[in-house]
Amino acid sequence: MKSHTWLKNALAAFCSLILFVGPTEARTGEKALTFGGHTLGEGLSDFTAKFPSAVCQSPAQAALAEVGTTLGLPEKPGLLRCLVDGPIRTLAFPSLNVRFAAAKSCVRAIFNQKRLTNLTYIVEGSAADDLLTMFENQYGPVMHKYRADDGSERISIDKMVGWAHGAEVLNLSFMSVKNEVPNGAAALSNAQVEKLVVLHLYDRRYE
Fold it and tell me: What is the pLDDT of residues 95-115, one digit of tens each?
């Protein structure tokens, strides 16, 4: 499904603003959390080897390049934010044939002293149920937290689920995105809806 430039930028801004707020309800498990072959604490060189096109800057510089504002983020020594723009040719989850979304910065990571503390994937929602089943098999049942809408006419969160292991948290956000239409807001009700899944893994000690 075609994603327009406006929509890519809007989704990037939306994710930059919300993804650091996880659900207040999460089930604590015994397994360390991981996805896409990534674990918290992995080295910067391991990440850039997998995503050689990643651009790594301070969080404020990255936000300015991505959404045109620093979002008030302070400069902190040793803190890097890495963004990977699509299209990414490799599959996000090969066993499920899940592809990265055509969104701007569909992979984002934050490193503290070159160690991963925060990772986000934005993937196509065609295999959302399979993704949820895969993580439930790995980490057990989840506690669901629903959000009706974020106030945007174009982007809404249908459901969030989460797991926790000590300070580690893994969230899945199931999103509906209305594609841009030529006649503006009046035609939004007839716009095609794209389903996306946002996966967010982070260490609460660094939030």
Answer: 888 999 877 788 999 999 999
Q: What is the distance between the alpha carbons of residues 109 and 154, in angstroms, rounded to a whole number?
A: 25
CA-CA-CA-CA torsion sign (51, 167, 63, 14):
positive
The alpha carbon dihedral of 137, 160, 145, 62 has a sign of positive
Taking Cα atoms as reference points, which of 14, 20, 16 lies closest to residue 206?
Answer: 20
pLDDT over 90 percentage in the chain: 31
Please tell me the pTM assigned to this model: 0.78
Question: Is 170:199 a contact under the CB 8 Å cutoff?
Answer: yes
